[in-house]
Structure formats: structure tokens, C-alpha cells
Specification:
The complex is a heterodimer of chains A (259) and B (316).
Chain A: E1 2-15, E2 18-24, H1 26-29, E3 37-40, E4 54-62, E5 65-71, H2 75-81, E6 88-95, E7 107-113, H3 117-128, E8 133-140, E9 157-162, E10 169-170, E11 186-190, H4 193-202, E12 210-213, E13 229-232, E14 235-238, E15 245-247
Parallel strand pairs in A: 7-8, 7-11, 8-9, 9-10, 11-12
Antiparallel strand pairs in A: 1-2, 1-6, 2-5, 3-4, 3-6, 4-5, 12-15, 13-14
Chain B: H1 2-7, E1 16-17, E2 27-28, E3 32-34, E4 57-58, E5 75-78, E6 81-84, H2 92-105, E7 111-115, H3 120-130, E8 138-142, H4 157-170, E9 175-178, H5 186-195, E10 200-203, E11 207-209, E12 212-213, E13 218-219, E14 226-229, H6 234-247, E15 253-256, H7 262-271, E16 275-278, H8 280-284, H9 288-303
Parallel strand pairs in B: 3-16, 4-7, 7-8, 8-9, 9-10, 10-15, 15-16
Antiparallel strand pairs in B: 1-2, 5-6, 6-14, 11-14, 12-13
Classes of the chains: A mainly beta (259), B alpha/beta (316).
């Protein structure tokens, strides 16, 4: 991982409260793998308020460019949304353990909730060139928050689910999963805890490999401050360093934090 | 190049002795240390920070047994700061001795192990095991964690003196005691700990605080309260160092609380600290401590300072 300054190339609204920020940052782009994240300082360089970095998932890496997909939820992300081409951003990354697919996988099912779609889109980019077929089932609150298919590789089969039924299939994203499970050799997912809980229940009796990327509030991003821990079957783990990608089976739903 | 040479020289212009009663036992090549809980066990930042350039490394608190810590949420950001209630999650003494001490023993930088305890007996057991372990240069007693149940060692001068004296009796390496700011009279605490045999005092630990989530109408942290750190607490820490340095002239103090730049570090030295610890700033800027080391060498060169003693307490 590196500490690096990225230069904003574009910062586009891609849905209600949602943005994709494209930055030039060779130091991070050259090493980044799907599932990893970047820890972003969300204030003017040298400012101590807001103090902490924000972990943001990589959506895509292309050459020296990295794309970050984020939801404006507070002061930090509001600051990011106000940046434009030429602005500098203080970045730490890439951080965390990436996805690691089974060599035997030919059909990959991706299950994403909201901005949890980002690492899955990058995973698709990595594996499509190896001839793996990819289906992405993605859930959003409403049509205005759906990520347009132009942001994804056209070879991905993209099924949209909305909570309110305003676009695509109505309901929860996990309602759409059972139809694809027989086809899939492997599953990768990222999204809010209730979605992962439901997926865990769906796959309870399945022997298929499944990995999930967790979203947690973080401090340092380096495994030191112990803010982002989760209880797993193998003990207390740090999402930032031991994860964010974990085997689904290691995470018993009763131990996930509800919030 | 001159900076690099002096950076590895314990007789250089920025070198400090944190335990003058035990000559040579805790000589730092510069006064910049990491703060406990913000630098893990010293190895986590190895890709970004060359620890050999620091004055010392202070570890996460070690308890006699491994601890899982508190339920979440464990931290929350506040104006220019953060609250934490980690609850002493750590690998425990056995893993510390087996996995980390041999690594520290290969380093040229002194490693100071922070010790957590729920009773005098636990502090004594951990300190006794660490004392004399190769790789452990000194211990720092954490009697000031606001996030765990137990006797309030850090809030009562006689309790603080009792635990310090008990550890002193079994501890052959330099002993630092880290004080809580959550007291009315910091000078009384410092005096009690010094008189009980501490070689140096670190101050301050975090201030107890709370954030309420107005959505849920409940305290935000799982532990309800947490310890406030970061730039927000710096003026309080500087004031407390200043007061203790005035009351205990010549006694080694380690200033900690919201230090993120060389100017911040200079404030503590000028208030009377002999060394400083960089804590929360490392979360934001992993190289903050190294930048402060560089900044101090530049400052010393620019101001024509031949020994850091010229700065320590100069604001008194």
C-alpha cells in the first residue's frame, strides 16, 4: 500500500446522492485488486476536521485511473462530492484482502446491495478476460439510485432489483438470488449486513464457495485502531486488514452487528 | 545527510534520556514516540514507516490474557477528534512474548510495552514477565483507560501510587506511568506516581466523552462513553504538561494529546515535556511521527539549537 496524492479527473453524479470520482493515481492503480479499498482523506490537505479518512471501494481501475463509487452520507463524503477536475485528494491504499476465486469457477454470481456493487464490478473486470461468465444481481432502494449499465462491462448479465419496484424486479436483492444459484459455481457479495444475513441463510446448506465483503466504520484502515472488528467463527477479526473479504461461512449471522 | 547521521545517534542534538535515574537504560535518539493503541505492536505500519527513525515505539496495551474488547460501535468521529471505546482488545502476554518480543529485539529503536490490568496483581504479573525480556526496553503502565470496568487506578493518587510501587518492586526496566486527565488535580496524581518510583510520566490519556445518536436517541458507542483524542484535546494536554512540569522541575514527562505536526510537538517540549507521543494523527497520516522527527531536526538546525534541553520547559 502507498500514501499518494490523486488528481481528480471527473466527479460525476451517477444517482441520487451517488457519485463516481475518477482520479489519476499510478501508485494505487498499479497494485489494486478487486475487493480492496482506498482510505480517503475528506478535507483540505492539512485540515484536521473532519479528522478521519473514509474507506471507499474501488469500482474500476484502468491504467493509471481509479474510480471510486460513493454515497454522500455525511460531512466527509459531502466534501468529496464538492471536488472537481484538477483537485488533489490524499489517498492511502490499496488496503485489505482482495477476493480470491476458486480456479474451477466458470460461472460467477455477484450479489450487491447499493454501493456494495463497486468491488463486485471490479471483480467482474478481473475475471471476464479469463472467460468466466458473470451475473450481477444488484439491489437499490429506488430507480433514482440504480447505477446505469454504462458503468459496467457489457459482458456482465446485470439484473436490477429495487426495494420499491420502481425499476427492475421489485423486492429484496436476495429474492432474486435463488434463481441463479444452481447456475453459479461461486458467489461473491457485498452490501449491508441484513442482505448478507439473508444470503447466508439462502446458502446455509450449499457447498458452493461464497465470499462476502463487509462494510464497516473504520479509523486507521491498517489494522491498528480496532474500530472495525467483527466476531467470526475464527474469533474477532478486523474488517480493514483481515478482510474486508471473508468466507461467508466464517460469519454467523447472529454475530453481525445490526445497524 | 547530516540529518540522517544524527537521526541514528543517541548522543545527537535531539537525544533525550527518559530514565536518568538508570543511566543509559532509556536513551532516545529523538523525542518522538508513537502513542499506545495507535501503532499496534509496531509491525503493522512497516510498509509506510521506518521505525528505526523514531525515538521509541509504544505498543498497544497488553493484558495477562488475550481480550476481545468491547461491543461496537467502538469509535465515532467528533469535531477535530474521535471517541474510542475499544476495551483493551489485545493478543495477551503470551503471544506478545512469543511473537513480538523477538522481533522488537532485532530493532535498534527502543520498544516500550504498554500494560493493562484490572488489579495490582495483574499489572505486577505482566510487568514482571516483560521486565528482562529481550526486546522490551521499558514498560508504560496504563492506569488511565476510561473504557474498562475495574479499580480507578488513574483517578486516585493513593491507588496510582500503590500500583506504581508494586510494579516498581518487580520491574528492572524503566517504568513510565500514563496519567488520566479525568481528574481535578493532575499535579497530585503526578507527584504520587513519581514518589512511588516511576521513572517518567506520560500525559495525557483520553478524556471521557459521549456522543448521542439523535436518530436512535441512544448513546452512539456500544460502551456508551469513550475516550476523546485528536487535535481537539491538545490545549488541555499542553496545559497539564505545563502544570506538572512546573511542579516537578527536571522530572521526565512525555507529552501526548492531539499532536499532529512539528509545531504541536514543540508546544509540548516548550511546556516542559522531554519527549512526545503521536497518537490519533497516525490514523490520519501514517507518517505523521516521521514528519515530526524531520521537522524537529529542521527546527533545531534553523534555530541553532545544540541540545534539546534548550527547549524543554522554555515556556515556563
Amino acid at each position: 500500500m502507498e500514501l499518494a496524492i490523486g488528481t481528480v479527473r471527473a466527479n460525476q453524479a451517477v444517482g441520487e446522492g451517488l457519485f463516481v470520482m475518477s482520479l489519476d493515481c499510478h501508485a494505487i492503480a498499479r497494485n489494486a485488486r478487486a475487493g480492496q479499498f482506498v482510505h480517503v482523506r475528506c478535507g483540505p490537505i492539512g485540515s484536521s476536521d473532519p479528522l478521519l479518512r473514509r474507506p471507499i471501494s474501488l469500482l474500476r481501475v484502468a491504467g493509471e485511473r481509479i474510480d471510486l463509487y460513493y454515497d454522500v452520507v455525511g460531512r466527509g463524503t459531502r466534501y468529496l462530492a464538492g471536488l472537481g477536475p484538477g483537485d488533489s485528494v490524499d489517498l492511502l491504499g490499496p488496503l485489505g484482502r482482495p477476493f480470491a476465486l476458486s480456479r474451477a469457477t466458470r460461472n460467477l454470481l455477484l450479489v450487491g446491495g447499493g454501493i456494495g456493487l463497486a468491488p463486485l464490478a471490479m471483480l467482474a473486470d478481473e475475471v471476464l478476460s479469463r472467460g468466466i461468465a458473470v451475473t450481477l444481481v444488484a439491489g437499490f432502494r429506488t430507480a433514482a439510485r440504480v447505477l446505469a449499465p454504462e458503468w459496467l462491462d457489457p459482458r456482465i448479465e446485470y439484473e436490477v432489483v429495487t426495494d420499491d419496484g420502481s425499476l427492475g424486479r421489485p423486492g429484496r436483492v436476495t429474492d432474486a438470488v435463488p434463481a441463479y444459484l444452481p447456475w453459479a459455481d461461486e458467489v461473491a457479495a457485498c452490501g449491508p449486513a441484513p442482505m448478507l444475513t439473508a444470503l447466508g441463510r439462502l446458502m446455509q446448506d450449499s457447498a458452493k464457495p461464497a465470499q462476502v465483503s463487509l462494510e464497516e466504520r473504520m479509523g486507521c484502515g491498517m489494522g491498528v485502531c480496532l474500530s472495525c472488528v467483527v466476531r467470526t467463527d475464527a474469533g474477532v477479526k478486523r474488517v480493514c486488514r483481515d478482510g474486508p473479504v471473508f468466507p461467508l461461512r466464517a460469519l454467523r449471522e447472529v454475530q453481525w452487528r445490526q445497524n | 545527510m547530516a540529518t540522517e547521521l544524527s537521526a541514528t545517534d543517541t548522543r545527537g542534538r535531539l537525544s533525550v534520556d527518559l530514565a536518568p535515574a538508570r543511566p543509559g537504560a532509556l536513551l532516545l535518539r529523538n523525542p518522538v514516540m508513537t502513542a499506545s493503541g495507535t501503532f499496534g505492536y509496531g509491525t503493522e505500519y512497516d510498509r509506510l514507516v521506518d521505525v528505526a527513525r523514531l525515538g521509541a515505539v509504544v505498543t498497544k496495551a497488553i493484558s495477562s490474557r488475550p481480550r476481545d474488547g468491547n461491543p461496537g460501535p467502538r469509535t465515532v468521529e467528533t469535531p477535530a477528534g474521535m471517541l474510542n471505546a475499544i476495551g483493551w482488545q489485545n493478543v495477551g502476554l503470551e503471544v506478545c512474548l512469543r511473537d513480538y518480543a523477538p522481533e522488537w529485539n532485532r530493532w535498534s529503536v527502543p520498544v516500550i510495552v504498554n500494560i493493562a490490568g484490572f488489579s495490582i496483581d495483574e499489572y505486577v504479573r505482566v510487568a514482571e514477565a516483560l521486565s528482562g525480556t529481550p526486546g522490551v526496553a521499558a514498560v508504560e503502565l496504563n492506569i488511565s483507560c476510561p473504557n474498562v470496568e475495574g479499580l480507578p487506578f488513574g483517578l486516585d493518587p493513593s491507588l496510582a501510587a500503590a500500583v506504581t510501587a508494586a510494579v516498581r518492586a518487580v520491574c528492572d526496566v524503566p517504568l513510565l506511568v500514563k496519567l488520566s486527565p479525568n481528574v481535578t488535580d493532575i499535579v497530585a496524581m503526578a507527584t504520587a506516581v513519581r514518589d512511588a518510583g516511576a521513572d517518567a510520566i506520560s500525559l495525557i490519556n483520553t478524556l471521557v466523552g459521549m456522543v448521542i445518536d439523535t436518530r436512535t436517541r441512544r448513546p452512539f458507542l456500544g460502551n456508551r462513553t469513550g475516550g476523546l483524542s485528536g487535535p481537539a484535546i491538545r490545549p488541555i494536554a499542553v496545559r497539564m504538561v505545563y502544570e506538572v512540569a512546573r511542579a516537578l522541575p527536571g522530572y521526565p514527562l512525555v507529552g501526548v494529546g492531539g499532536i499532529s505536526s512539528v509545531d504541536d510537538a514543540l508546544q509540548f517540549l516548550m511546556a516542559g515535556a522531554r519527549a512526545v507521543q503521536v497518537g490519533t494523527a497516525t490514523f490520519v497520516n501514517p507518517r505523521a511521527s516521521l514528519e515530526i522527527v524531520d521537522g524537529l531536526y529542521e527546527y533545531a538546525a534553523r534555530e541553532g539549537i545544540s541540545s534539546i534541553d534548550e527547549l524543554i520547559g522554555c515556556a515556563q
